[in-house]
Amino acid sequence: MAIETEAGLIAIGAGLAVGLAGIGSGLGEKDAAAAAIGAITEDPSVFGRALIFVVLPETIVIFGLVIAIMAFFVL
């Protein structure tokens, strides 16, 4: 019974890690994308830099996924 409870809690923790990282990333990307679109509208030559700033918050989700994978296979 204790092993099943432990596995369930690990699954909940992994889900929270990915889910909350996704929500945080979405909130950060929303602001960055809005600013990037405004900057590209005024000066199209900043497209490359704007793209980097839009993609940067996505790394947070990758970190959440790594934590979830570690929780499943290490704990």
Written account of the structure:
This protein has 75 residues and is mostly helical. The relative contact order is 0.18. Helix 1 (2-42) packs antiparallel against helix 3. The protein has a single domain, classed as F1FO ATP Synthase, CATH 1.20.20. It is built from three helices and no strands.
What attributes does this structure have?
mainly alpha, 88% helix, F1FO ATP Synthase, 75 residues
Top CATH class: Mainly Alpha
The helix content, as a percent range, equals: over 70%
* Name of the CATH architecture: Up-down Bundle
- What is the approximate shape? rod-shaped
Low-confidence stretches: none
Q: Would you identify the CATH H-level superfamily? A: F1F0 ATP synthase subunit C
How large is the count of helical segments? 3
- H and E order: HHH
User: Major sheet, described briefly?
Assistant: none
Radius of gyration: 18 Å
Number of domains: 1
Q: How much strand content do the residues show?
A: under 5%
Count of distinct strands: 0
Structural class: mainly alpha
- What distance separates the N and C termini? 17 Å
Named CATH topology:
F1FO ATP Synthase
The pLDDT mean sits at: 90
Topology:
Elements: H1 2-42, H2 47-55, H3 58-73
Helix pairs in contact: 1-2, 1-3
Short description:
The protein is mostly helical.
